[in-house]
Design brief:
Elements: H1 4-7, E1 18-19, E2 23-25, E3 31-33, E4 38-46, E5 53-60, H2 64-67, E6 75-81, E7 96-114, E8 120-127, H3 129-136, E9 139-146, H4 147-156, E10 167-169, E11 175-183, H5 185-195, E12 206-211, E13 214-219, E14 239-241, H6 247-250, H7 257-260, E15 266-271, H8 275-281, E16 285-292, E17 297-304, H9 305-308, E18 365-369, H10 385-398, E19 402-409, E20 419-423, E21 445-457, E22 462-471
Parallel strand pairs: 10-13, 14-20, 16-18
Antiparallel strand pairs: 1-6, 2-3, 2-6, 4-5, 4-21, 5-8, 6-7, 7-8, 9-11, 12-13, 15-19, 16-17, 19-22, 20-21, 21-22
Helix pairs in contact: 4-5
C-alpha cells in the first residue's frame, strides 16, 4: 500500500522520487518486500512498443533467494512518481506508475551475480501482464464493422487481451470485413493499425502502444493536433533549456527545485537528415502499383511530399495551422538535381518550373494487392492502398529523421506521445551558461517524445529521465527557392574507354 511519503507533493530537490514498498510475489502467493535491497529500477515506454517494460536490480542481503527461489515467473507490486502536482488538466492522479491493482509480470532473469560476502545480486525483467496474455491466446474469427470497434473488442474481451487497463481509443473511418487467421491479439491490432484511417484527420495509419497513462490506439497526426479541435496545436507539456556545460555547473543558486527540472543535464542529436535514406524509404516521393488479381487490372499512384504537405498536420505550424507561407518541411523546396532541368507538374508552394526532390516518384516503388476489397460489400469503404501505404511510409520515416536524446532530472509526468519544447544552443558559441546561451532558431521548438527511460537510483534516491524525441519540421523557414542556373555544371566530355589505349596517345 502507498505510504504517506509516497503521496506527498513536497518537492525538495530535482531528481527526487516517491516509491511505495516494492513487493515481489511468487506464483505460490509468497510476498517479499525488496525496496530496501534495490539498487536500480528502470521503466521503459515507447511509441513503437506495445507494452511497458522494465527491470529491477536488488542485492539479496536477507537470504531471500533461499526462502523464495526466483524462477522468472513472479509479479511486482509497487507505485512510483515524481512528487509534484500533476501536469494533467483532467486527472490529478496521473503522472506516475501505479502497478498495485495491476501487477507487472516478471518474465525473465536478466542477471544473477555472486558478490563478495556471500550475497547475490539479481536483475529481473518485467512487463505488462497483457504481454503474457498475448502469448497465451490466438484469434481466429471474422470481423465486420469499424476498425476501432474490432480493436476495442480484442483489447477488452476474453478471447483477446482481456485487459482492464485504461484504454484511449481514436475512432476510425468506414466499415470493413476481414479475418484474423489464428493470430495473437496484438498482431491483429498492429495489422489494423497499419491499415486504419482516422475519421476526422488527414493522415492514415495508427500506433498501438502503452505509456504511464494507459494503452493507446491513435492516428499518427493526433500527436500534433487534437482530432476534435482540428488544426489547434496540442500544447507542450514542459519546456527544457540546454546549455553547453553540465547543468549542475550553471544552475543559479536561487533557482527553485521545480524550475531546475527545466534544465537538461545533457543532450545529443542522435540522427539527422539523410536524404538518400529518406528517398529510398519513400519519405519524399513514391510510386504505388496496385493490382487486382480478381479483375486482372492494375494502376499506378504517385505520392509527392511537397504537394501533400499542407494537408498533413505537423509539429511546427504558423498561427493559422497552414505552412503555405513559411515552408518548414524537411524536403528541399528547391531545384535539387543539377543534371535534370525537366519541367515539373507539381502545384504547391509556388514552386519553380524545375523538379524538386519530391517529384521523383520512382525513388521508391511499392507493389500491393487490391483484391481484398472484393470481400467488402461496399468497395468504396474497402482498404485503399493508394490512400494509405504511401502516406504512412512517409510519416513513419519522418518520425525517424531528426532525433534528439535528452537527459534530464526525472519526471514521471512526461510520457511517450507527449510534446515538449526544447531550446537547443546555437552552434559556434563556445562555452555558455543559462544566461548567455543563444538558441538554434531552426531546431529549437516543439519535439515529440517517442520513447522514455526512467532510471531510479535507490542508493542515491535520485531519478533521471532519458527522452528520445523527434522533429519532422523546422521551427523556421530554411529552404528557399534556388535558381537552377546556380546549380548548372559543365560537361566534362565523353566517357573514357579504359580498354582503348588510343585514348592515352
Amino acid at each position: 500500500m502507498a505510504t504517506e511519503s509516497y503521496e506527498s507533493n513536497k518537492f525538495q530537490f530535482p531528481g527526487e522520487f516517491r516509491c511505495s514498498e516494492v513487493a515481489l510475489i511468487s506464483l505460490s502467493g509468497n510476498i517479499a518486500g525488496i525496496k530496501s535491497s534495490i539498487t536500480e529500477l528502470n521503466i521503459y515506454e515507447s511509441l513503437t512498443n506495445n507494452f511497458i517494460t522494465g527491470d529491477v536490480t536488488f542485492v539479496d542481503t536477507a537470504n531471500l533467494l533461499d526462502e523464495m527461489p526466483i524462477t522468472g515467473a513472479e509479479y511486482l507490486d509497487f507505485k512510483i512518481r515524481t512528487p509534484i502536482k500533476s501536469m494533467y488538466r483532467d486527472d490529478d492522479d496521473k503522472g506516475g506508475y501505479d502497478f498495485t491493482n495491476r501487477r507487472m509480470a516478471v518474465y525473465k532473469i536478466l542477471n544473477k551475480t555472486q558478490l563478495s560476502g556471500g550475497t547475490t545480486q539479481v536483475t529481473l525483467g518485467f512487463i505488462s501482464p497483457e504481454a503474457i496474455r498475448n502469448q497465451n491466446v490466438r484469434i481466429s474469427r471474422a470481423f465486420d464493422g469499424p476498425y476501432d470497434k474490432a480493436v476495442a473488442d480484442i483489447f477488452k474481451k476474453e478471447y483477446g487481451l482481456n485487459s482492464k487497463r485504461k484504454f484511449y481509443l481514436q475512432e476510425t473511418k468506414n466499415n470493413f470485413k476481414f479475418v484474423a487467421p489464428n493470430k495473437r491479439p496484438v498482431d491483429v491490432i498492429n495489422m489494423i493499425a497499419s491499415r486504419a484511417e482516422p475519421k476526422r484527420s488527414a493522415l492514415p495509419g495508427y500506433l498501438f502502444y502503452e505509456n504511464g497513462q494507459g494503452f493507446h490506439f491513435r492516428s499518427l497526426d493526433s500527436f500534433f493536433f487534437p482530432v476534435a479541435e482540428g488544426f489547434t496545436p496540442i500544447p507542450e507539456m514542459f519546456e527544457f533549456f540546454c546549455t553547453d556545460e553540465p547543468v549542475q555547473n550553471t544552475m543559479p543558486k536561487n533557482e527553485t527545485p521545480l524550475r531546475q527540472l527545466r534544465f537538461a543535464k545533457s543532450y545529443k542529436l542522435d540522427k539527422y537528415v539523410d536524404l538518400i535514406r529518406m528517398q529510398r524509404s519513400g519519405a519524399f516521393a513514391s510510386q504505388l502499383i496496385s493490382y487486382d488479381a480478381y479483375n486482372k487490372t492494375f494502376s499506378k499512384h504517385n505520392h509527392n511530399y511537397l504537394d501533400d504537405f499542407v494537408r498533413v498536420p505537423h509539429l511546427e505550424k504558423d498561427d493559422d495551422g497552414i505552412d503555405s507561407i513559411s515552408y518548414t518541411g524537411l524536403a528541399p523546396n528547391a531545384h535539387y538535381d543539377p543534371t535534370d532541368f525537366s519541367a515539373t507538374n507539381s502545384t504547391s508552394f509556388g514552386r519553380t518550373q524545375y523538379n524538386t526532390i519530391s517529384d521523383y516518384s520512382q525513388a521508391r516503388i511499392m507493389v500491393a494487392s487490391d483484391t481484398a476489397n472484393t470481400h467488402n460489400t461496399n468497395m468504396s469503404e474497402g482498404y485503399r492502398n493508394k490512400d494509405t501505404l504511401q502516406r504512412r511510409a512517409m510519416s513513419l520515416e519522418l518520425l525517424n529523421t531528426i532525433q534528439l536524446e535528452l537527459t534530464t532530472h526525472g519526471n514521471t509526468h512526461l510520457n511517450a506521445g507527449h510534446i515538449i519544447r526544447v531550446n537547443l544552443p546555437r552552434p559556434g558559441q563556445g562555452k555558455t551558461d543559462v544566461k548567455t546561451t543563444q538558441y538554434d532558431k531552426a531546431l529549437s521548438g516543439r519535439w515529440l517524445i517517442t520513447a522514455v527511460r526512467h532510471k531510479f537510483n535507490f542508493g542515491d534516491t535520485l531519478h533521471q529521465s532519458v527522452y528520445t524525441c523527434i522533429k519532422e519540421t523546422y521551427n523556421r523557414q530554411v529552404h528557399r527557392g534556388v535558381s537552377p542556373n546556380k546549380l548548372t555544371v559543365e560537361d566534362e566530355g565523353k566517357p573514357l574507354n579504359l580498354y582503348d589505349r588510343s585514348e592515352y596517345n
